[in-house]
Amino acid sequence: MGDYSQCIQYKYKNDFCIKCLQKDEDKKSLQQQLPRIAVLATGGTIAGETDPTELTGPYRSGVLSIEQLLAAVPMLSKVARIRAEQVANIDSKDMTIDLWGKLVIHANELLASPEVDGIVITHGTDTLEETAYFLNLLVKSKKPVVLTAAMRPATAVSADGPLNLLEAVVVAGSKASEEQGVLVVMNDEIFSAHDVTKMNTYSVGSFQASEFGALGWIHENQVHFERSLVGTHFNTTHSRFSIEKMCKLPQVEIAMSYAESSRTSIDAFVANGAKGIVIAGTGDGTLHKVLQQAAIDAVRQGVAIVRSYRVSYGHVSHEKLDDEADFLTAGTLNAWKARVLLMLILAEGINDHAERQYIFDHY
Ligand SMILES: NC(=O)C[C@H](N)C(=O)O
């Protein structure tokens, strides 16, 4: 029954009012028109709890349940019909490839159902961009998939999680978000999984999209897109990768170049069975000569080497050295996203160097 307190007829006759019942019916049919969003919770600071004596920290990630997070945002029932699942409840620093696989398989199942219009995944901020990019390469649907998180725990003064969650659900329920690839919604902005990076250790404005900027923004529950991507990754359904073909992802590690770099990291990775190594190089992906020699030796042992960068953003393009040493270059992908792509390339059994580089240039 609706709220009849404003209805004079109801107040005075204590009887049912046709007009109010009509309004009730209208409300019901409006409710039926709301998008159906599946919320998959994995933990993170958005589900974090502070010590009651603290303002924003120290705190523990992945403590509160998805039901508690949803209950903190009553307005959600006005923007979507929600079904929620607790897939995990972890600090995303501890993210595993196994959980990535589960998320992809479950997301694909849900998105194939006519009962689901979009998906929101709540996540920790630390590895959110890796999960988002992994999903972007493996989700097979044009329906929106949106990741969100929080920089402040749920119990903090001025927690950012509730608004981020509400806005992520609004974006996932918007037709404008279809065919945009996997999206990340943080702090009123909409980013592509391909571009977004956590740039700051504490700020609520931590997520940015390198030199490319956000795809759009949300204001007063209205979704605005300003641009979209043009690479193959633009629409997840165009990705050549598919989770069904992948049993186990090969070991791919990340090394870094710096002053007086040794070859210890690369040699240890190779000795440990790594099939690929991404190097976060200085400047535009340059390598200290000692590390570079280790990388050349690794290629000779059949290990794939990708040059990426350790600065905040930019791109690493193909140079003479790459032709000579058979190195791959990561383009605009940072080292941890390049690692995700290299794992999929190797898992797919793509051995041709030019084909591998083509994928780095287009995904
Ligand atoms: N803001 C956060 O979510 C950080 C947290 N350590 C996590 O990634 O789970």
What does this structure look like?
The chain is of the alpha/beta class and 363 residues long. It has 2 domains: 34-238, L-asparaginase, N-terminal domain (Rossmann fold, 3-Layer(aba) Sandwich), CATH 3.40.50.1170; 251-362, Rossmann fold (3-Layer(aba) Sandwich), CATH 3.40.50.40. The chain has 12 helices and 16 strands. Strand 13, helix 8 and strand 14 (276-281) form a beta-alpha-beta unit. The longest helix is centred in the N-terminal third of the chain and has 16 residues, at 18-33. The termini are far apart. The model is unreliable at 1-15 (pLDDT under 50).
Secondary structure layout:
Blueprint: H1 8-13, H2 18-33, E1 36-43, E2 49-50, E3 59-60, H3 66-71, H4 76-79, E4 81-90, H5 97-112, E5 118-122, H6 128-138, E6 145-148, H7 161-172, E7 183-186, E8 189-192, E9 197-198, E10 207-208, E11 216-219, E12 222-225, E13 252-256, H8 264-271, E14 276-281, H9 289-300, E15 304-309, H10 320-325, E16 328-329, H11 335-347, H12 353-362
Parallel strand pairs: 1-4, 1-5, 5-6, 6-7, 13-14, 14-15, 15-16
Antiparallel strand pairs: 2-3, 7-8, 8-11, 9-10, 11-12
Helix pairs in contact: 6-11, 8-9
The protein binds asparagine (ASN).
